[in-house]
Request: fold
Amino acid sequence: MAGEFDLIAKHFMRPSHAPGTGVMEGIGDDCALLQPAPGQQLAVSSDMLVEGRHFLSTVQPERLGHKALAVNLSDLAACGAEPLGFTLALALPRSDEAFVAALARGLFALADAHGIALIGGDTTAGPLNLCITAIGQVPPGQALLRSGARAGDELWVSGLLGDARLALEVFRGTLALDAVYFESVRRAMEQPEPRVALGLALRGLASSAIDLSDGLLGDLGHVLRRSGCGAVVDMPALPRSAVLARQTAALQQLCLLAGGDDYELLFTAAAARRSEVIAAAAKAGVAVTCCGRIVAGAGLHVMLAPGHTVAAATLGLRGFDHFDGS
Amino acid sequence: MAGEFDLIAKHFMRPSHAPGTGVMEGIGDDCALLQPAPGQQLAVSSDMLVEGRHFLSTVQPERLGHKALAVNLSDLAACGAEPLGFTLALALPRSDEAFVAALARGLFALADAHGIALIGGDTTAGPLNLCITAIGQVPPGQALLRSGARAGDELWVSGLLGDARLALEVFRGTLALDAVYFESVRRAMEQPEPRVALGLALRGLASSAIDLSDGLLGDLGHVLRRSGCGAVVDMPALPRSAVLARQTAALQQLCLLAGGDDYELLFTAAAARRSEVIAAAAKAGVAVTCCGRIVAGAGLHVMLAPGHTVAAATLGLRGFDHFDGS
Reply:
């Protein structure tokens, strides 16, 4: 059985101080050294993934490696930050080389796609747990925050919502899907694409942004509390896959409004800047959909159909809370 | 039972963008935003602590909070970096408010002592696991690295070695100690003091540095491999507590050379700079001891007594490897 240092050296140590990455010293010293561009602010995000909670024991390790990094890059994207590098702390129940190799492949494939390096970390024995901290940079004052939404702004979302939750329901046994449909929603759950390019394109354009990890209503609630305003969500407008569109209205509602694990960007922008938003999304190569508006005063409402708007609280959906067993 | 957000809000959210800390947006947005001083490099360290591996289930949560941050600040210290802030990702088996409150107290007491803020993180249900990522800054070119030791340098260590291992042996039942002695070595194990001030004072003075987490021989081995040289450790000179000095020669040797969990700095400096090293340590308020020298060629030797020097490998001690069950 290979020891800890051997496993790390074989699968995770790569030349990380390549010219241009801003990484000066990577894995192998007490700390990684990073040189941000002059005057930039740093954006820092940490997420911990636990077996049975954030991923199932059946997940392919390559997809797990992808997802562990993706959820952190999604946080950077939601701030409009440019990723610089990341650390990985990993607890493994046993020294399983095939698992580690596949995990590293998935992780580095996404890291390479974004031109960033693994700069350090830790490996230990323990119940399976991955903790990634991603570090990015953003010019001072240009970070997208949750606090900037204003009455009159339009509400936008990237990509499609709800497929990850649909996959989860299949895993939970509450729903059956044909294999080809299942594969497509399973990919949404296991391999989300962080919207980094979109976040960069929205600098100076979006008035607020957040990434969707706990479900639209819960995450939008964070934006509204921070911004001191309310919103009306246009339920029929919410973008969904053909697979989700075939499900019952109740299941669509659950998946779209309280699905969790979407890792799309939810953002607001002044209505007058609609064409700029569309151009920015096109430049980033991501579909965006206008799905509501910000209103004065507190309160989150959902327009279920034209002329039929209800308070979100009456829908009996709620945000994801790790300790409530949802 | 309080939900995740309530627990975090109550015990971990503090105003973290106080003037002067360089922290712009803390917990509550997608990312923390940090403004390093102009032109500084960043030093980043991540460590994951797992129950039964890095701490015992009997540890007081306040001490655990201290230690989780201390081991990361120790890495920053070993680079000569000035701490700026840290993230905490926490997996908890259940929503235990008393535990979280005490953990937060221990964590913030050490954070406050170093003038740094918790800037973000994550909380989830799962087997107890703490992952902290600490971020510091250091002027370009001034970071202390493992690679700078040169033949002729003197080898130094801060504080006392081996008490943490002595405490571990008591917990393992291989040793009995009077209560008052046990409390003192237990404190060394559970509440190490990161040598941040010493690390700063050694900038431009130490030729290499590392923090002692896996035992002196193992950690010194990392320095020697990176630096391309060898060393002779002066065993009688190694600084030890009165409690350790009362133990058998074999146990002293184990604790001093392969103890683990010391979190002292091991560093090298040119012999001509000895008085500067002593002055820097005095300024930092930390005792340092010269305990060997760097020699040309590969090889790590231990002088057990004057005139009796052996190759370290012949002692049958080895560095800590999480997968070898040590």
About this structure: The domain at 154-324 of chain B is CATH 3.90.650.10 (Phosphoribosyl-aminoimidazole Synthetase; Chain A, domain 2). Residues 61-79 of chain B form the longest helix (19 residues). The first strand of chain B starts at residue 23 and ends at 25.
